[in-house]
UniProtKB/TrEMBL annotation:
Residues 12-189 form the DJ-1/PfpI domain. This is ThiJ/PfpI family protein. Pfam families: DJ-1_PfpI (PF01965). Signal peptide: none annotated. The lineage of its organism: Eukaryota, Fungi, Dikarya, Ascomycota, Pezizomycotina. Residues 224-239 have a biased composition (Polar residues). It comes from Arthroderma benhamiae (strain ATCC MYA-4681 / CBS 112371) (Trichophyton mentagrophytes). InterPro entries: Class_I_gatase-like, DJ-1/PfpI, INH-QAR. PANTHER family: ARAC-FAMILY TRANSCRIPTIONAL REGULATOR, THIJ_PFPI FAMILY PROTEIN (AFU_ORTHOLOGUE AFUA_5G14240). Residues 214-248 are annotated as: Disordered.
Length: 248
């Protein structure tokens, strides 16, 4: 596919300890396939050049079972102190690592620094917390992981949080809902750049059922109720879930 000078060419992703695997690998695999036809490149940026794990560091809010160690690690191409140049699209994933501001403080500072230099800012899941903490979502519409909606959004009332949205676009900032929604949003971004039919072809090559409508949100966050107690983001995945009625 022939490109043009306005197409984003350089994608970069900011990693931190405890990122969510699918937040990263879902959107990146859509870009992997896109790169077969287009001249795009990727930079993986982390605090250091050491491998970055999906396992979060010890955090008071994260109650991991003793011996828990199922995780993956990614080798970065750049560090926060040695950045690539000419980034067009900056991607920020979420994950358990966003649960403590101290863990993501360097990422917050870097996102704030880089935003004026990029064409697009793209967050997945609780990656929107990084953007909100950086002040980049002030006055803007945005969304986030719906299972962790209340804890993520409550500290940032200046953001126009959307309870029901698979992803949200406000200016040059894209924010997606939880985990798998990042792949839907990235396919929509690819569609914006290269056309809807091309994005549909990418989804087909992935054998992925793309949710094209950003308002189609089966996991929409319910309105808060004074009679409903807070739900722990780290409870069992099946807690508070009727397995007989859940579709996905």
């Amino acid at each position: 596919m022939a490109g043009n000078s306005t197409e984003p060419k350089h994608y970069a992703i900011l990693l931190f300890e405890g990122f969510q695997a699918l937040d990263v690998f879902g959107p990146l695999d859509a870009l992997n396939i896109t790169s077969l036809d287009n001249g795009i490149k990727l930079s993986i940026i982390a605090p250091t050049l050491n491998p970055v794990s999906t396992k979060p560091p010890p955090l008071p809010i994260v109650n991991l079972k003793p011996g828990w160690g199922f995780s993956e690690s990614v080798v970065p191409t750049h560090s926060y102190d040695d950045l690539p140049t000419d980034i067009d699209v900056l991607i920020v994933p979420g994950g358990l690592g966003t649960s403590h501001c101290a863990n993501i403080e360097p990422t917050v500072k870097l996102a704030r620094k880089l935003y004026p230099e990029v064409k697009y800012l793209f967050s997945i899941c609780t990656g929107s917390k990084v953007l909100a903490e950086a002040g980049l979502l002030d006055g803007k519409k945005a969304t986030t992981n719906k299972r962790r909606y209340e804890e993520t959004t409550r500290p940032y009332p200046q953001v126009q949080w959307q309870r029901s949205a698979r992803w949200v676009i406000d200016g040059n900032i894209w924010t997606s809902s939880g985990i798998s929604a990042g792949t839907d949003a990235m396919l929509a971004f690819i569609g914006m750049v290269y056309g809807r039919e091309y994005a549909q072809a990418i989804a087909k090559r992935m054998e992925y059922r793309w949710v094209e409508d950003p308002t189609d949100d089966p996991f929409a966050a319910p309105e808060p109720s004074s009679t409903r107690g807070p739900e722990s983001a780290y409870a069992s995945p099946t807690s508070h879930v009727d397995l007989g009625s859940e579709g996905k």
